[in-house]
Write a structure and sequence with these properties.
13 helices; G_OBG; nucleotide-binding
Length: 412
């Protein structure tokens, strides 16, 4: 059974991390029980918005997820979020909650780094003007690098000695050293493949070790930058600088405080708000039959400002797109296990697509079966139309993403 995907949220104080976390774990979205057996104090359930399979077959009115929600074919799939606290410069030296912060990171498969793009908070999160947020991006990357490098260099002479004595491969030796970062053999192999002309491990000097650590870091901690407070007057120039300086990093412009405010107004029935879009309607737009509450002038003006300065200008608050960007980096595909491949029901009732799992693109369907069913004997696997799927066939977006597993009677 594979472990659940974990997305780590990092950010200095006052960058908007807590606000972003609140919007991603929106209590209004929670339906039913949780799919995760343990939720530690610094973990939370987020909701990744996807196009649900029910819309493909016109069954939106029958879609009732066991976990998360589905609203008119837009599905919120639960995903584990890790709130990584104690983010300050020199964390790798044990400053602040440094050791805890870096220890917590090991569990993350991907990071969302909340950056205050307005430049109105300094490195410690204190109010200022004109601070360059590029510093925050670079020191976070450097903290992680120094931490992994320091751990490796502390015992490097012994590592090389054992490597030679046991005649191990480079992959075997590094797996023993880097496995503690929740990194499997495939991930470490991918990191090594990305370093061109890599000599044998016993010939590595400091420069080669640093190249390997950087490559491992990029594979282990792919990062989405949330350029927050995008509607601040100083944000534009900072966003441009960041994108030019870090063209390979995935950037999403966000205003998490706007998202939290809109969700609050929607919950209080002042507005109708389509998550992840620019569409906000009030009683003025939809009329009294909408059931929305009337607005006073102050609230009406505030909504107009949000439309002009955030929604119409940027297309959305960006918050919903954050988890989508992280899922894209991790190449996650929604997969729907069903009992009945013809009706898509999960059991005896009419309700469809009760379950949805996030699986890495390219995973063989037999691995998906093992993750869901455990170690049982499977007779065959079917997809839409009752078509049989080979065990080594893989899942992809819209391909082999609806599966039914037929067991050998009494087979375990």
């Amino acid at each position: 059974m594979g472990r659940d995907t974990v997305i780590g949220l990092v950010g200095k104080p006052s960058s908007g991390k807590s606000t972003t976390l609140n919007s991603l774990t929106d209590a209004n979205a929670k339906v039913g029980a949780f799919p995760f057996t343990t939720i530690d104090p610094n973990k939370a359930t987020g909701y990744l918005e996807i196009d649900c399979a029910c819309a493909r077959f016109g069954k939106q009115n029958l879609c009732k997820p066991n976990y998360g929600y589905c609203r008119d074919g837009k599905r919120g799939v639960p995903i584990m979020l890790l709130d990584v606290a104690g983010l300050v410069p020199n964390a790798h030296l044990g400053r602040g909650l440094g050791n805890k912060f870096l220890g917590d990171l090991t569990e993350a498969d991907c990071l969302i780094h909340i950056v205050d793009a307005s430049g109105t908070t300094d490195a410690e999160g204190k109010a200022t003007r004109g601070y360059d947020p590029i510093n925050d991006i670079e020191w976070l990357q450097e903290e992680i690098f120094c931490w992994i490098l320091g751990n490796l260099m502390d015992k490097w002479p012994l590592v090389v000695k054992r490597h030679i004595a046991t005649k191990s491969t480079t992959l075997e030796t590094l797996r023993a050293q880097l496995g503690g970062y929740s990194a499997n053999k495939q991930l470490i192999a991918r990191a090594l493949d990305l370093v061109p002309n890599l000599p044998p491990l016993n010939e590595w000097d400091n420069e080669w070790i640093e190249k390997v650590v950087r490559s491992f870091m990029n594979v282990k901690f792919p990062t989405v930058l949330s350029l927050n407070k995008m509607d601040h007057p100083d944000a534009d120039k900072n966003v441009l600088k960041i994108i030019l300086k870090h063209p390979t990093l995935k950037c999403v412009l966000t205003s998490s405080i706007t998202e939290v405010f809109l969700r609050k107004l929607a919950a209080q029935k002042y507005i109708k708000y389509d998550l992840g879009t620019e569409f906000v309607d009030t009683i003025d737009d939809l009329g009294p039959e909408s059931g929305l509450k009337p607005l006073d002038d102050k609230l009406r003006n505030r909504i107009e400002n949000i439309r002009d300065l955030v929604l119409y200008r940027f297309g959305s608050t960006g918050v919903v797109q954050l988890l989508q960007a992280a899922a894209d980096l991790l190449e996650l595909v929604p997969v729907y296990p069903v009992r009945n491949i013809n009706s898509f029901a999960g059991g005896s009732g009419d309700e469809v697509f009760r379950d949805c799992m996030l699986i890495k693109k390219g995973t063989p369907v037999i691995s998906v079966a093992r993750k869901i069913m455990g170690d049982v004997t499977i007779a065959h696997i079917e997809t839409v139309g009752g078509i049989k799927v080979a065990e080594d066939d893989v899942v992809d977006k819209g391909k082999n993403d609806i599966l039914s597993f037929k067991l050998v009677p009494g087979g375990r």
